[in-house]
Prior knowledge:
The structure holds three protein chains of three kinds. Chain A is mainly alpha-helical. Helices cover 74% and strands 2% of the residues of chain A.
Amino acid sequence: xxxxxxxxxxxxxxxxxxxxxxxxxxxxxxxxxxxxxxxxxxxxxxxxxxxxxxxxxxxxxxxxxxxxxxxxxxxxxxxxxxxxxxxxxxxxxxxxxxxxxxxxxxxxxxxxxxxxxxxxxxxxxxxxxxxxxxxxxxxxxxxxxxxxxxxxxxxxxxxxxxxxxxxxxxxxxxxxxxxxxxxxxxxxxxxxxxxxxxxxxxxxxxxxxxxxxxxxxxxxxxxxxxxxxxxxxxxxxxxxxxxxxxxxxxxxxxxxxxxxxxxxxxxxxxxxxxxxxxxxxxxxxxxxxxxxxxxxxxxxxxxxxxxxxxxxxxxxxxxxxxxxxxxxxxxxxxxxxxxxxxxxxxxxxxxxxxxxxxxxxxxxxxxxxxxxxxxxxxxxxxxxxxxxxxxxxxxxxxxxxxxxxxxxxxxxxxxxxxxxxxxxxxxxxxxxxxxxxxxxxxxxxxxxxxxxxxxxxxxxxxxxxxxxxxxxxxxxxxxxxxxxxxxxxxxxxxxxxxxxxxxxxxxxxxxxxxxxxxxxxxxxxxxxxxxxxxxxxxxxxxxxxxxxxxxxxxxxxxxxxxxxxxxxxxxxxxxxxxxxxxxxxxxxxxxxxxxxxxxxxxxxxxxxxxxxxxxxxxxxxxxxxxxxxxxxxxxxxxxxxxxxxxxxxxxxxxxxxxxxxxxxxxxxxxxxxxxxxxxxxxxxxxxxxxxxxxxxxxxxxxxxxxxxxxxxxxxxxxxxxxxxxxxxxxxxxxxxxxxxxxxxxxxxxxxxxxxxxxxxxxxxxxxxxxxxxxxxxxxx
Amino acid sequence: xxxxxxxxxxxxxxxxxxxxxxxxxxxxxxxxxxxxxxxxxxxxxxxxxxxxxxxxxxxxxxxxxxxxxxxxxxxxxxxxxxxxxxxxxxxxxxxxxxxxxxxxxxxxxxxxxxxxxxxxxxxxxxxxxxxxxxxxxxxxxxx
Amino acid sequence: xxxxxxxxxxxxxxxxxxxxxxxxxxxxxxxxxxxxxxxxxxxxxxxxxxxxxxxxxxxxxxxxxxxxxxxxxxxxxxxxxxxxxxxxxxxxxxxxxxxxxxxxxxxxxxxxxxx
Lengths: 780, 143, 115
């Protein structure tokens, strides 16, 4: 199972190769992958419908208890089927829509990768697995929105989508970690069975807020809804797939998944139902401002996502049944409508609904599909969308808290949605024929297969709700509820309040449609208001981040070497000094066990350093540093480190040679600082010196740690066959360190050679030949 | 900048260089038991060449080195150092585990740490020679 | 001996930092040399200083006779000495090249990337 899903990534990697073999049929070949997965899922359907939870576990690092576990219950099944079935249609559709596009290969790679990520997301059992797949969908979505990468708008929208969803992803990660801490497990299955513990945990509030932050950004809930309409810069197959049927529902999936564990509290109900209702209204209302068919659909998607969130928030049995029904219905009709929008764009060359008209004779099939799907969107019987909407109204009437607000918002949203549905289908297909940029004709069969398939499902599920209702939706609703539920859907419930609401909203919706032009004109006057909306907030935030980073670069990365050193030294003094003086009051005994010659050597060493400091001659300074180095060698020899002594002696000699070679190429010493700067530097340097002194005194005096070298001394001869323990450490015990060190040496040498021998060609006309010569001599 | 030296320096360098090189090999081989080892031996060997360099100049030193470029020495040293960690792998032990082989006849013990130490020797020698010879060469080019 | 060394190393650090804070690039190099030596001594001294007991094992013995100096810091310092030389070589050549190009010995004048 895991392998079947993850093999999709391999498939994505090989898509370019497939392109070479199969040419124009690549999309069809790739579509076999989700189709096969969908078939496999269907074979598992009976088990899942029986209420079973299928677990597929693959040990990964058993020693660390890491495994890749997939979980298949009703909810996962519903989502996985949506992803694979719509994915199949979208791939077929994309083959026609993007035919001959130079970047079709990239598209295939990314969309298949996205499909796999999405599947992984809805199937994952481990929280971290879920998070990784979640982020993968964000990244692939970024690549897909920015598919037309030569378009500035598309790039900007892609970046916006990425920032918003990944920002939410960060919150999500924090939430998931808190969830794991609270429930003491990383497995969703285990966590959700212990809902009480989670709901009463002290971390419940921050955990819930973080998780909601992740879900709301991903699913474009108010006030994060603005990225979704902008994401319509993506090619239409992407919009149909990611931005209506799958990715934006990832947040909804997460909420539904966590509902048994976290849902049902006052907080959950309050936030979800109010935010959901607000989103619903915002989406439906803002849709009316637009004439671009994709934007219209995008806003109505926001409305649908809001509905789903609200239903989860209400959380009664009826609401959950409404939730799964509405989810399925929306994916079917919205996917189809987006594809229709793509066909219109592709065949007429415009996305503006006001520029189209009377296309039904030219594109009968498309018009048919559009009618069915739009009627489903509007919630007209006998389509599946009607059932979803009836159930939605029913649950809104059951709401306990915030009833008035939720009722009003959702009723208004329903009216506007009906208007949107009318606009989307009546404008382009009916009315008088209008000239479009391209001569319109029916779309090729590849592009029709998807919408027709989805519309058929819409119609079938509407006429025979049993098909969907009893099996899959029951299982899904039970998984969301965390307890067995029974779903029985039917078209006719008798004359009751929801039906009346449906009828009234239909009538009012049609009224809104009739006066759309007038309404849109008036709404345009509100434009200044939108300059202060959430999107403006996002822009301001981004500008602010840029400004802050500019400011801190100016202050910290100012290019003055001494400032860098100063900052580092002062921080070091502050941090080390803090723990040295405040945490462990320095305790030490000063024993003056010093022999005369040792004192002389140490004194000479310090003198050398001090003289190097005050000398005005470069040569004298180098010489006195040399004296200091030789004194250090002596100290090494006096205190039982012959190897060190020899090394220091040799290196000191070579250092002096090196410096003499370079020194005369370097400027003389110069006094550049003001006296005040000198005093400041002296204070900093002096404090550092005192700190180091105290540090050594404390360290030498402490006996807190047993030296680790005992083992090395004992085993030097028996195991390593060497009597010089220092050398044994270098070449045997800690050979890896030494290996790293000779690599560093080699790098330094390469750096020296490169800087001296490889010169940038001088800006002269004949410089090319010269540069070549320098390069050759470096190679030779 | 650095001109060829005096007769005394020349003669001394000519005589001392082979001795110093021999001494460096001695230090390298005994390093596992007595003070010495790859780092020290590499520094001594570099000292030998640098003395010669000061006495006779870059061109002459390059002739002494013949085909061997200091940069090749660095590469060889790194290669030996890296290769010496592999044998343990073939006998099924962890990387870096020292392997010892007795060479029959002379009773000399060969081992991966020795190979490693030779690698260190060559890398240190190559680094120093490369740095200093390049510096002197550039100085010669731009008086 | 350690208290005396602590004082000496403290002074070494102070001189090193003072030199590194100068604007003259040659002084920066001198500061770098002082700092690396001071750091080596710091590690060496922190392990405690022992007279006349190098970490060598007599021929034929399995372990050193009596207490010897801790070999581990010595091994660390040994490589550090050689590395410091490599870094120094790199630094002086870098400064040499920078001086050739910028023709200024004032570090404050080397704050732009496009010269």
